[in-house]
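Sequence only, no structure available. Ideas?
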Amino acid sequence: MKQRLWSWRWRQSPLRRGVDVAEGWLLLAAIVLAAVGGLLAGVRAAGAVDDYLDRQRLQRQRTPAVLVQDPKRPPRVDGTNEVYNERMRARVRWSDEDGRSHRAVTRVPSHLRTGDTTSIWTDPTGRTPLPAPATNSQAALQSGFTGAAAGLGVVGVVAFGCRLAQRRIDRARERWWAAEWARVGPEWRRNDA
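Reply:
I predicted one. Tokens follow.
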């Protein structure tokens, strides 16, 4: 029965109009466009994010840095002085590939003290501190979510466009039915009397 409901727009029937066939083709085109377009958009977006994150990993390098000040720790609620495993902001100093010294505030492990050495991420010249690049698992997750969002976005746009087209078709149908009733209705009223 479901097959008949779906394909009635293409079967020969005295009640079928051209607009019914057009609506059937519109729905079929929307389904194909949503499936293929969503898949392609998702794959392309995921690939673009993955390429960007790969370039980011290649363009960032670890650089040794020395703490110039202790990390600022917020007071513990329980009053203990346990070592945090968090990363806190602190001022560090490092040298670039030309030997020039640079300073910046960055996140470092909270257990470090002034004079301790840590590593930071910089650009290839070693002059500008940058956030750490995404790990392989973070990159996979980020590209997967971006691809899924892009694919769903295409599906949503196609569904919205299809619904708008169906509303226009429905309005045209209502106008045709009203015109047909205006033509046929008076004949029926005469026969009832």
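Residues 136-192 form the longest helix (57 residues).
Hope that gets you unstuck.
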